[in-house]
Amino acid sequence: VVSMKKPSLSTWFERVLFASLLLFVVFIPSVYSPFQTPKTLGFYLYIELLLPFFLILGYRSQFFTHILKDRFTQFFLLFLTILTASSLLGANPWNSFFGNRLRMDGVVFWYHLFAYILYLRLAFDQNPRFARKFLYGYFITMSLLGVIAVLQTIGWIPAIDKAFTSRSTATFGNPSVLA
């Protein structure tokens, strides 16, 4: 008899985090870099959709009581505080917070990146085996992208879009980064 056990909330959280490895692999013809606005907005949406699950799991596991004592977290929070203050006091606070419309790499991006790091830390704390699986998946994904970039550079496989050969491959093996 095969048991059809329903996955727990933490299992679903881990699966969605693992899927984040593919977030920058997806090729969209109108997006020629992984840091362009549509990709960044997709990352923001991804992080914000996971927030309620993170809060529930973090509360259940007492994650928030010990993460604030962690040196990395303290330094990152200090960095975000300084970044936010300098953005508020700078010449163009709007651009500092959201970045320009081509890159969207302002303070808001750093807050989302910090949230993503906390999500991973929670998942790794709850299941150390997931940490190993995630890192293996990361190395496999990045190795595959590197191989594709090398093969595109030497011409063994065609670039995804001939019109923008140095930029269109940025999301799926960027040979221009290898220079």
| Total number of strands | 0
Number of helices: 7
Percent in strands? under 5%
Taken from the alpha-carbon principal axes, the silhouette is flat
Provide structural commentary.
With 179 residues, the chain is mostly helical. Helices cover 62% and strands 0% of the residues. The protein is built from seven helices and no strands. Helix 1 packs across helix 6, helix 2 packs across helix 6 and helix 6 packs across helix 7. It is flat. The N and C termini lie far apart (56 Å).
Q: What's the quick description here?
A:
This protein is mostly helical and 179 residues long. The chain is 62% helix and 0% strand. It contains 7 helices and no strands.
Please specify the SSE layout and strand pairing.
Elements: H1 9-19, H2 37-60, H3 63-67, H4 71-89, H5 93-98, H6 107-126, H7 128-153
Descriptive labels:
mainly alpha, flat, 179 residues, 7 helices
